[in-house]
Amino acid sequence: DIQMTQSPSSLSASVGDRVTITCRTSQSISSYLNWYQQKPGKAPKLLIYAASSLQSGVPSRFSGSGSGTDFTLTISSLQPEDFATYYCQQSYTTPRTFGQGTKVEIK
Amino acid sequence: QVQLQESGPGLVKPSGTLSLTCAVSSGSIFSNAWWSWVRQSPGKGLEWLGEIYHSGSTNYNPSLQSRVTISVDKSKNQFSLRLSSVSAADTAVYYCARVRNSGVGPFDIWGQGTMVTVSS
């Protein structure tokens, strides 16, 4: 299985801050990396697919980068509705695996 | 826009079988997509259980392969999950989701999720 390691596990930030979350994979997955946002009691929502492509309807303050084994999700200016947990996920091969999540909290 | 809706019992007895169905609406299960099950234990992360293509081809998580079966009912435009020999560790929110782009894409559409508790 491809192991996914996100960092940090949690962070505190203020509205307007630039936030960066990283995801490292145990082997190269090219650009088959996706990012999701999950709020309490809700299903995950796709934000970024193929490492850097913005899903339709997702605000442009979200961006993704990376390839191979190292990936980054950036929120350029954190908004109140962005406080949530974020997960990375690889679609390179099965079993499909997720990172452990990064909880973004209000400072 | 395709929508997914899970249904099934919210309570299953230990050693029993968990059975859930995911109805696909506003779209066809014959599309170029894989149809997946993902679960999330309380306060935990996300775990992929397996997936099925409309042809009936399946992929399963090796950690659960001996206990999980996913099937498709093309006439009803739905797919189903069966998880046998359940224990308290299988208590979770179960989501169905679509994997687009013939399997190399993301989970782009999710059901709302259904909570299943394993308890006597």
Could you describe the 3D structure shown?
The complex is a heterodimer of chains A (107) and B (120). Chain A is 0% helix and 50% strand. Chain A contains no helices and eleven strands. Chain B has strands at residues 3-7, 11-12, 18-25, 33-40, 46-52, 58-60, 68-73, 78-83, 92-100, 107-110, 114-118. In chain B, a hairpin with a 5-residue loop joins strand 5 and strand 6 (58-60). The termini of chain B are far apart. Chain A binds chain B through residues 1, 32, 34, 36, 42-46, 49-50, 55, 87, 89, 91-92, 94-101, and chain B through 36, 45-48, 51, 59-63, 95, 97, 99, 103-108, 110-113.
Protein structure class of chain A: mainly beta
- What is the β-strand count of chain A? 11
Number of distinct helices of chain B: 0
Helicity range of chain A: under 10%
Computed structural class of chain B: mainly beta
First-residue to last-residue Cα separation of chain B: 39 Å
Main attributes?
heterodimer; A: 107 residues; mainly beta; 7-stranded mixed β-sheet; 4-stranded antiparallel β-sheet; 0% helix; globular; B: 120 residues; 11 strands
Question: Topology of this protein?
Answer:
The complex is a heterodimer of chains A (107) and B (120).
Chain A lengths: L3 E4 L2 E4 L5 E7 L7 E6 L6 E5 L3 E2 L7 E6 L2 E6 L9 E6 L6 E2 L3 E5 L1
Parallel strand pairs in A: 2-11
Antiparallel strand pairs in A: 1-3, 3-8, 4-5, 4-9, 5-6, 7-8, 9-10, 9-11
Chain B lengths: L2 E5 L3 E2 L5 E8 L7 E8 L5 E7 L5 E3 L7 E6 L4 E6 L8 E9 L6 E4 L3 E5 L2
